[in-house]
Amino acid sequence: MGRLTASRRVTRLTLDGVYRQRPDAVAVEEPLEIRVAGSPLAVTMRTPGHDVELAAGFLVSEGVIHRGDQFARAIHCGGPGTGGADGNTYNVLDLTLSPDVTPPSPDIARNFYTTSSCGVCGTASIEAVEKVSSYDVSADGIRVEAVDLAGFPDRLRAEQKMFDKTGGLHGAALFDVASGEMLVVREDVGRHNAVDKVVGWALLHDRLPLRGTVLQVSGRVSFELVQKAVMAGVPVLSAVSAPSSLAIELAERAGLTVAGFVRGGSMNLYTRPDRILIPSTTPALAETSGVR
Question: What domain range includes position 254?
């Protein structure tokens, strides 16, 4: 596994006249080429670590696999660059899928180049990236206490060890609503990568579909994050920031609950608010024209 952080010398400047140089930890960002049976499928810019989970989650998100037994093995291969004595940079991962899995189309491979900020850059159209899930998210009867949901962002933040060091990583965590347990937390420079690592963890532990869970993310909600949640069977997606209009539209069609601005004891429920149980003492207020 590659380094998670790197040390760089920075100049620290404050407006009260403090000017000094010091070492600073920054998050590592390196390319990962994902191959299937030796054939290149995608390149993503990611923080090294949990690469197998990342690749497995990516395949779930793209509708290639949806069960743990469809993922046979993964091997880091030698790649270009300055690797060790064996030439292995640990930036190329070759996956073997079970014989019953239809290999990804070469046309799909040509369309994929992902970055740490955008998980579907280079895909030809919105229609091409809106996948059909193997799981019916709308049928999940999950109910979440609002007070529990409001606490998930702080619980995620408390486990973001690399963010504490660098200030530059997104986080994603999966919560089991029945037990209140945080099942897994992952960090990455890309928010979509952090989610893929969580989904990949679930696949490799035979947890799909992720019924009865909440996926908590540290930033905003884009179309691709909603898609990844739906493909993994997650019924509730919670974020500390806002969803996009396209994310809301996809969530509505899929029956996914999206909660945004979950912080400071309040939240906005954009879709399927019936799953969130409000305190019995909360007064009902008339609708206003304001936002947030």
Answer: 137-277
Assign residue 189 the CATH number of its domain.
3.40.140.10
CA distance 263 to 238: 10
C-alpha angle 137-265-160 in degrees, rounded to nearest 5? 70
3-state secondary structure of 252: helix
- Which among 262, 209, 203 has a CA at the least distance from the CA of 237? 262
**Same-domain check for residues 150 and 255:** yes
Q: Is the domain of 271 the same as that of 166?
A: yes
* SS3 at position 31: strand
> Any residues with CB less than 8 A from the CB of 260 and at least 6 apart, and which?
220, 221, 238, 239, 241, 242, 243, 267, 268, 270
Convert the pLDDT of each residue in 117-135 to its tens digit.
565 554 544 454 466 899 9
Angle, helices 223-231/51-61, rounded to nearest 10 degrees: 90
Here the tokens at position 90 are 């640990």
pLDDT tens for residues 13-30? 888 888 889 898 888 899
118 among known catalytic residues: yes
User: How many Å separate Cα 58 from the centre of its chain?
Assistant: 10
Question: Please, what sign has the CA dihedral across residues 50, 112, 231, 221?
Answer: positive
The model carries a pTM of: 0.86
Q: Which of 43, 118, 129, 242 is catalytic?
A: 118
